Amino acid sequence: MGKILVLAEKPSVARDLAKVLNCNQNSNGYIMGSKYIVTWALGHLVTLADPEAYGNKYKSWNIEDLPMLPNKMELVVIKQTAKQFGIVKGLLNRADVDQLVIATDAGREGELVARWIIMKAGFKKPIKRLWISSQTDKAIKEGFANLKPAKDYDNLFYSAQSRSEADWLVGLNVTRALTCKYNAQLSAGRVQTPTLAMIVAREEEIKRFVPKDFWSVQAQFNGFTVQWQDKVTNQTRTFSKEQADSIIQKITGQVGEIIEVKKELKKELSPLAYDLTELQRDANRRYSYSAKQTLNIMQKLYETHKLVTYPRTDSRYITTDIVPTLTERLKSIAIGPYAKPVQNILKNRINVTNRFVDNSKVTDHHAIIPTEQFVNLSALSSEERNIYDLIVKRFISVLSPAFEYEQTTVKLNVNGESFTARGKIVKSWGWKSVYEGFGKVDEDNEEEDNNQSLPEVQKGQKAKIISPKAVNGKTKPPARYTEATLLSAMEHPGKFVENKALKETLENTSGLGTPATRADIIEKLFNTFYIERRGKEIYPTSKGIQLIGLVPNDLKSPELTAKWEQQLSLISKGKVNPSTFIGEMKNYATKLVSAVIASSEQFRHDNVTREKCPECGKYMLDVNGKKGKMLLCPDRECGYRKTVTVISNARCPECHKKMEIRGEGEKKSFYCVCGYREKLDAFKQRKGEQVNKKEVAQFLKQQDTKESINSALADALAKWGK
Length: 722
Hints:
Shape: globular
EC number: 5.6.2.1
CATH class of the largest domain: Mainly Alpha
CATH superfamily of the largest domain: Topoisomerase I, domain 2
Largest sheet: 7 strands, mixed
Structural class: alpha+beta
Cofactor: Mg(2+)
Strand order of the largest sheet: 2-3-4-1-7-8-9
Number of domains: 5
Helix content: 25-40%
Pfam families: Topoisom_bac (PF01131), Toprim (PF01751)
Number of strands: 26
CATH architecture of the largest domain: Orthogonal Bundle
Protein name: DNA topoisomerase 3
Family: Belongs to the type IA topoisomerase family.
Number of helices: 22
């Protein structure tokens, strides 16, 4: 009887599958059993060919040779992982293998990983698809008992391939056009450019912003604070100092009378379960984790620890078939800080509503929730523990009752002027009791909370107004993006669009990019030095601002890329022909190249240093990398880079901020913004008293590692547009 070959996306997943499938014979690049052979990719093993593959003329970058529009896109084996591809191809072509099971990640990109390998290897035998949302032994067994025909996922593959080809056609053509035209390392892309445009537009708004003074009038009445409110507009601030002064004059020494007391019982339902973008937002707000960092931690929790379901999801709901598993999932997390709230839910019978269970709102994968795997919290790193904590608390809160409170609104009349006060009495903490301190859980709602504790008040009550005062404030400019707010803007770019119909289209698609790609897009903008972080805030660099001035207008708009995502979504549902879409992309790439060539704009490096590149002699550029300052050669073909300072994890002994490492070899020293300096030897000695030498060496090695610049197709694109 023939064997079944199982293709996983990574070695760690392959080992889990092999264990469940009773494969225990380890070989070079695969694990074999009596019935199954499990092998793996290393992410993408196959990718779209470089332009050079389509003829010698593309080996040098000439603006006259653009646009590059191959009739048929070629696939090539990625050099770095060619050995593993050879092993997988050999297994696919084995005479005793008569069936393949695709077990790569259950999503658009995972489908592409497998299909390109299959195409490049020329495999023609029957194929099935394993489609699972968690990596527990139970989920794997159930998945293999319910394998799907691979053809069910053909449209998902066409959508993934169309996305890659569109990125190639637009990204590579525009990148070459910009680089040739302006003689600088410039790149553009269908998602990264509109994202950068939003950051640049926000910076321009901040620069143009002129703060205005406003005043609010407050006073004490019967032991609580009341605030003036405009009778017509209900605003509690005025932009006229004269008006504020005249109100104070009018109410000083006067008696106020309560003319209305309104009591309302209010309910606040728990937030919806997490999809990836919402989780990345919360992790950035609470822990300052980047979107990419959160995704990497999630992959660990999903693949290695098997504690959470598939991370790259855009749904915040679960399907009805998951409901019977909720009790088991709750029992598996009923430890430590989660034991009490879980017991409360299990005691009162699980109450699921359409805020959590809705089949119509789940596409490929349901919301991120815990698996049935019992958890050992001590096995998690602090970062994994933080992300796991967010997921578990959100899961418990979705299954918990509403937060209930009584809101009291008091209205006063003071000599013809209207004043108001609000008070809140909590009736039941409900889902908020899951969160320590029960305070403000969602930092998005940063409106001033004017609730205070009010004494018993009644209509008609009178009292003298005490200590009236005008409080001066200034209007604030729009805030700079953080990764959390940038993810929100990418997810809902409709607010940046005037056209009503397009606004709706944008709200019904996934916005800019997908949950799976947004983190990489943001990382790419950092790695190409278009944006930089200062604390949590994101600033565009001069290079980023200039690029937005050079790029053709419609590539900057979120409308266009959202339309593409909508088209890709329709391709995945079999409603749009991929070749029609690619035809449109070729026309679009041609139009963009022409726009770049016709432009009369200029590009100027304003960060040139006096230090020459040791490889090619050009003056190098001073840039802020993710881990510190770097010198970069402006020549695309040279690409030399040198680290000048590295932001270390070592804390300053005086002010406890992270210190920079400057210098090379034995001349390395630690510098802090507060002025503290320490030579490497002194640091080693100080640290040596607290930790062993091995740990110090490990720490220094971590600081020296060069940051990886991008992934898979992003790697390929990086070659064409640093």
